[in-house]
């Protein structure tokens, strides 16, 4: 009985090792941050940090859905920018108009993700090529909507989604947790979720097993677009405006890939969790906060982020290297 329990624990640890590492890294870095912050550990400091990290967390979740199928979405950041510009037009007015605007923005993100999936699955194009092309299309649409920064948003709604609940808990973290419970958990436990993991591990074997590979991949890309749209909404809530910022869209795309790697999601597919990607995003964003409290030149941030990411990847590869060495003993 104890042997079986030990085996179960080891299996669980092997599955969640990346998530646990990302969570531990985030906790350590955040403790160092608040310990050196002039205001200390206060609700306002936590709220500010949470609001900055939430944007990347949503895009990292979107990237995770695609990466577990052994794909990649280089349009995730541009979907966020497009939905930000769209929200600056639609999420205004009366409560009914605001609600309809939010639905329209979310549906636009879902449609963008679905378009990626349809082209990749039925057009049989490589994900990297497809999403580079669609990212240009999405940015072009964002530029048509907002050739210059402008627009507005329902400020009462924006304040509600970026404030603190009960004066302590950041509302953005609550929304992030609810998103995981409503979108990620049901997907992972569904037949389509298992098929997505199977496709990432071995698409040929999954197809021979009769798993719904095409539907799983389509849903993964569509949900990825939906999550990027939620990030676009939050960007509008934070900035009160819309802007077709090319550099910002590219940065969120690249940072989302870094966050999923940091969170233990394999770029080869078939392994990882959106929860790990979220912790990876939180840890990645905390790097900038650390530079702030230690009063380092912002120009050092890319270097510092790259070093942290390389260390994380190296630690994650140690176990793989050991397994390969042990397998070589039996050849």
TrEMBL record:
The keyword Membrane applies. The chain crosses the membrane at residues 12-33, 53-72, 79-96, 102-121, 128-145, 165-187, 218-240, 252-268, 275-294, 300-321. It comes from the Bacteria. GO terms for molecular function: transmembrane transporter activity. Its main location: membrane. Keywords: Cell membrane, Membrane, Transmembrane, Transmembrane helix. CDD domains: TM_PBP1_transp_AraH_like. The keyword Membrane applies. This is ABC transporter permease. GO terms for cellular component: plasma membrane. It is a multi-pass membrane protein. InterPro entries: ABC_transp_permease (IPR001851).
